[in-house]
Structure prediction request, 614 residues.
Amino acid sequence: MLSKNREPELFTIDGDCIQFNSNLTLKTIDGSHQTIKRILKNLTSEKVTLDLSQVVKMDSAGVVLIDEIRRNLSENQIAAELSGASPHIKQVLKTFSLPRAEIEEIERTGLFERLGRGAYHLKNETITDYLYIMADLAYWTFLGIFNRKSQRKGEFVNQSINIGVNALPLVGLISFLIGLVLALQSAAQLRQFGANIFIVDLVVIAMTAEMGPLLTAIMIAGRSGSAIASELASMKVAEELDALQTMALNPLRYLVVPKMLASIFTMPFLTLLADILGILGGMVVAYFYLDISPVSFYYRMADSLMFKDIITGIIKSLVFAGLIVQTSTFFGLSVRGGAVGVGKYTTKAVVISIFLVILSDSIMGLIFY
Amino acid sequence: MKTEIIKVENLEAAFDGKRILKGVSFTAYQNEITVILGTSGCGKTTLMKHLIGLYKVDLGRVYILGQRTDTMDEDEFEQFQLNMGVLFQNGALLNSLTVADNISIALEQHVKIPVDMIRDLVRVKLKLVGLSHAIDYLPDQLSGGMLKRAALARAIAMDPVLLFCDEPSAGLDPVTLKGLDQLFLQLKEQLGISIVLVTHEVSSIKRLADRIIYLEKGHVLFQGSLQDALDSNIPEIKNFFNNGN
Ligand SMILES: Nc1ncnc2c1ncn2[C@@H]1O[C@H](COP(=O)(O)OP(=O)(O)OP(=O)(O)O)[C@@H](O)[C@H]1O
Ligand SMILES: [Mg+2]
Prediction:
C-alpha cells in the first residue's frame, strides 16, 4: 500500500466554529495541545462554537482538553458554546469536568514567592519550635539524671550500648586512619626542614583539640542521629507518639531523654578513643617514614600533650552530643508526609546536625583559642 | 436519670484558618456506647483528638466525668488522662515492643506494683481479647484483626472508665468485626466502661449504639438514641442507614 489511511485532522476551524473530527481520547489528542493553543490565540470573534457532533468516544483527557479550550477562550473574553454532543459524551463531560473552584485553587506559586515563604516560615516557626524542643529536652534531661522513673527500665544502658559501645569499632578505625593520613601528608614537608620530631606535636594537638571530637561527632550524627530521627519520625507517622501521649507518657521523657543521657555519657569516651587511635596512627607513620621510635614519640608527646586541649575536646564532645540528639529529635518530630517524609526528615536531621556540629566547633574554636 | 460522662459545648477547631469544627455541642452518658457518625472528612477524628487531649481546645468547653478538661494544666490533664483509654485507627502499637510490653508500658510508669503482677494484669487483658497465645509476639507478627484486639487490650490496660475508639472496624471482615463488637458489649456490660466509638459500619452501629451523634461538615446534625436515628426524617441520616443495607 502506498498511501496510508490518514487519520482525519483532529479539528478544523470554520469561521466561529471549531469542529472536532475524531474521537477525543488520550491517544488522539496526543501532541495537539500546542497547535490548539496557538490557534486559540488568533481567534478574534466574540463567540465560538465547539462542535462535538462527530465525536463518538471521549475520555478524561478529551474532557480536560475541552475544559482547557473553554478556559482559554473565556480568559480572552470569548464565549464558548458546546454543540452536537451525544448523551454519552455529555455524560462523560459531566463525569470528568473539574468544578471551576478546584481549578483556580491549584494556582501555581512562583519560585521567588516559594523561596520567600520558605525563608519566612523558617524564621518564624522552625526556629521557635527548635528552641522550644531544646528547652524542653534540656529540662527533662536534667531531671532525668536524678529521676529514672518515666523512662523505660534499662533504656539508658541499652542506648549507651547502642550509641556508644557499638560505635567503638567504627570511630576507632576511622580515627586511626585519619591520624595516619594526617601524619603522612605532613611527614614529607617536615622532613624537608629536618623538623621530623614536630610530627608528634602536630598529630597530638590536632587530634585532641580538633579532629577527635569533630570526627566522632560526625560519625555519631550519621550513625545515631539518623537512627533517632527515623525512629521518631516513623513512630509519629504511625501515631505511636499520640498513643504514648494518651497513656500520659511524655514522648520526650520516655523516648528521647534516655538517648540524650546515653549520648552525653558515651561521647566523651568515644572522643578519647578517637584521640588515642588517631595519635596511634600518627605514631605508625612517624616510625616508618620519619624514623621516630615509639619511645621518643611517647616522650615528645608527654611534652606536647596539653591538659587544656583534652578538656577542650571533651567539652566540645558534650556540646556535639547535645546538638546531635536535639536536632535529630526536632526533625524526627517535625515529620510530615507519611513514609516518604520519614526518609526526607532523616536526611535533613543528619545534614543539619553535621552543619551545626561544624558551626559550633568553629565558635568554640574561637572561644577556646 | 442518666449521668453525663462527656459534655461538649460550642467546640471550635480550625487548621490553617479552615474551620473544621463549627460549634460542636453534644452529650454522652455513662455506661452507654455513643457512636459518632458522619461522612469522611467531616471532623470525627479531629473531634476525638480534642477530647483526648491530643489537640488543644482553643474555643469551647469540654467536660469529661464531670470535670472541665480544656482548662486543666498539663500535669493535671496527664493524671486525668489515666481515666481514658484510646484505641487508634491503625492500632498504633509501639512496633519495637512485644504485645506484652505494649500493654504494660502505662502500668509500669503509673502504678507501683511488682513486675509479676503487671505480667498477670497483661495476661488478664489478653485473655479478655482472646490473644493469650500472642503475648510475646511483635506487632508485625499480628494480623489486622489481632492487631486491633492487642491495641484494645492496651487501651484498657489501666482499666479506664471511658474508652475512645476511632474506626475500629476499618479493614476487618464481618466475622472478625462481630467478634470485636462482642468485646465492646462485654466491656460495657461486664465492666461498666462507657465507650465513644467512631465507625461507619451500619451493622456495628445497630449492634452497639445506645446513642448517635451525627456530624456533618463540622456541625452536629443530630443527636439522640439509636431508635430515633433509625426513625429520623433527616435526609442525610436516612441516606446513611438505607445505603448501609
Ligand atoms: N493535622 C491537620 N492539618 C490540617 N488539616 C487537617 C488535619 N487533620 C485533619 N485535617 C482536616 O480536617 C478535616 C476533618 O478531618 P478528620 O480527620 O477529622 O475527618 P474524619 O471525620 O475523621 O474523616 P474519616 O472518616 O475519613 O476518618 C479534613 O478536611 C482534614 O483535611
Ligand atoms: Mg477519621
Notes: The radius of gyration of chain A is 34 Å.
